[in-house]
Amino acid sequence: MASGGLQLLGFVLAFLGWIGTIISTAMPQWKMASYAGDNIVTAQALYEGLWMSCAMQSTGQIQCKVYDSLLKLESSLQATRALMVASILLGLVAVFVAVTGMKCMKCMEDDQVKKMRMAVFGGVIFIISGLAALVATSWYGNRVARAFYDPFTPVNTRFEFGSALFIGWAAASLAILGGSFLCCSCPRRETSYPPTRGYPKNASSTGKDYV
């Protein structure tokens, strides 16, 4: 029962991490403009994401523009896109694999060994998915930090971490943690020893003498 609860907890955490990865990938707030000085700007906030850039006016109106050409984007941004999409696809595969191996499901009940292996395999895929998202968000965040502290970067073009980055870091951590729980949820096999054979008991004497 304890392993079943750990397995369910791991699946819930990993599934929440996968949902968070999807949300983080779709959000445009991967980095937000950092205003410094006394310059007057018309936009209240500027955001840039993996797919579009947005500007929120002081009136509350938000205008977004999708990036025109894929080939004009920086190679690092294209790699970040690829890692996040790969993380989402791996998470989708992990969901189906892990559900098949869950103890509360009736699939593959006739072979418990294969069922446990499916749960562990799903946990491994969740961990890989979380690592891909973690690499993508950390890489992007490192680029934002380096550009912010670069003295040659103009003040009006400096960006800070956006909310999508923090959601991505949290989602990657949940996916890795949940996948680890899935991998550790299977009970260990107990070593089976052959049954000990007792020595035959001495036959009780019947008091009869055989000739």
From TrEMBL:
The keyword Oxidoreductase does not apply. Keywords: Cell junction, Cell membrane, Membrane, Tight junction, Transmembrane, Transmembrane helix. Claudins function as major constituents of the tight junction complexes that regulate the permeability of epithelia. Belongs to the claudin family. The chain crosses the membrane at residues 7-27, 79-99, 119-141, 161-184. This is Claudin. Coiled coil: none annotated. GO terms for molecular function: structural molecule activity. GO terms for cellular component: bicellular tight junction; plasma membrane. InterPro entries: Claudin (IPR006187), Claudin1 (IPR003548), Claudin_CS (IPR017974), PMP22/EMP/MP20/Claudin (IPR004031). It is a multi-pass membrane protein. It is found in: Cell junction, Tight junction; Cell membrane. Its main location: other.
